[in-house]
Structure formats: structure tokens, C-alpha cells
Amino acid sequence: MGGARDVGWLAAGLVLGAGACYCIYRLTRGPRRGRRRLRPSRSAEDLTDSSYDDVLTAEQLEKLLYLLESTDDPIIIEKALVTLGNNAAFSANQAIIRELGGIPIVGSKINSLNLSIKEKALNALNNLSVNVENQVKIKVYVHQVCEDVFADPLDSAVQLAGLRLLTNMTVTNDYQHLLSGYVPGLFHLLLIGNGSTKVQVLKLLLNLSENPAMTEGLLSAQVDSSFLSLYDGHIANEILLRALTLFQNINNCLKVEGRLANQLPFAKGSLFFLLYGEECAQKMRELVCHHDAEVKEKALAIKPKF
Question: What is the pTM of this model?
């Protein structure tokens, strides 16, 4: 009886996609309770079908990566990237895709002139970047993603995808220095973008603001005076609270370094002059009376610094 089961397993593994093989498997193994039933093996293109929502095996991921590397069909490329991105949300697959050499394959697609393909590639890299070991390989794309974020259509899906990847890559201090030269551009994007863009840029700036090594670079950035409008009482809370936290983080970093803001030399027009000027001080005094308790609390924490 055990021999028959072994034969069934061997047949199921070797005869790809054969319905007869699947029947033999079921006869020799019987029903599998509490586990997902085995599907007949599928081609790489089949795996990109939106109706196929199973977590892929290493063998299937390898097929998908080969397909992504070998095809020029933009529809197939986009579907393959979506499938890889979805599977990269699972920690085990993040490691498998890296070990299969998949990160450079996905990363090469951010060069695509097709913005939809580029967006899907950035989304896949974003999910892969949750893994610290993957970040070592993804860091080579940070410079290009920064450049592209400023060149992509304003408030577009591809721009937001790039910002999300940069945000993930700056959760720790390891690669934040790679963004040092782009800080003024990020503040500019913060001011001209819509609500979604503002929130995403603020998330990225918040990561940088928690690192004392980035404080001087943030404060020295030339920032338009309209930045202070982020501290108006009528601004949406998801933006206002993050803008206040940005200020808090900078104050905290200065305290850690044992330095006072007014002891640092910064040029006029810098973020320093905006944050520590009288106009901002007045806004903090007004926010102390804000109707939202969290806004009020953050404003009170900042106000004594003046």
C-alpha cells in the first residue's frame, strides 16, 4: 500500500498539468482534511491569472521570474509583477525571491517607459523591501527612485509608489544618508502635492527626522515659506499631526545632541528660519487652543521650545 502511495506522489510531481495524474494522487492519498487541495501544475502565464490567488511555491516563483525576464509583452509583464508583488507580501517568499535572483529582475522594470509597469515594479520592490536582507540589494535603486519621484507626473500612482518604497527604505537609519541630497526636493513636493502626496512625503520626512544625523540637513534645506501653512488650524489632521511630529522630532534630535536650535548657523530661507521664527511660534500658540486633543498636546510640547 505504501508503494502505491509513493508511485502516486512521483506521478503527481512529474506529469505537469495532467488530469489523470491528479486523479491518481487523490486515489492513492485520499482526501486531505484541513489543507488546501493540490491544484494541477500550471504554466507561468497561468500563474499571472488574477483568479489564481494561492501563495506560490519556490518552483512557481522561479517560473514567473523567468517569464518576467524573457517576455516583451507589456500585459504579461504587468500581470507577472502584480503576482510577484502580491506574493512578496509573505515573509517566506521575500527571501525566496531574493535567493532566486528576483530582485534585479524586478528592479530592471522600474526603467520601463510604461508607467503602469513601472508602478507595479515599484510596488513589488516595496513589498520585498520589508525584508532587511532584501534592502541590501534594493538600495542600489534608491538614487534612481529619488530622481524619478521628482520627474513622474505629480500625484500619480507611480509617484506615490516610489515614495512608498523610499519610506520603507528609510524606516531604519541604514540608508537614510542616500536621500541627503534630495531633502529640498521632498519639501517642494510636499508643498505642491495633493493630500495623498503630502501624507506620503511627510511619512518619509518623519523617518528622516527621527535620526539625529539627518537633523542638520533637514534644517538647512531651503523651503518655501508656504510650508508654515501646514500648521494652520484648518488643515486636515492627518497632515497637521504629521507636520507637528516632524517639528517635535527635530527638537528631540537637537536635545539628544545637546544643541539648541538658535546655536546653529543656517541661511535665511531654510527650514530652520521657518520653524524657529515668530510666525511659526504664533501658529503654535494658536494650535494650543485647537479642538483636537492630540494636536493640542503636540503644540504644547513644541511651544516651550520658543
Answer: 0.82
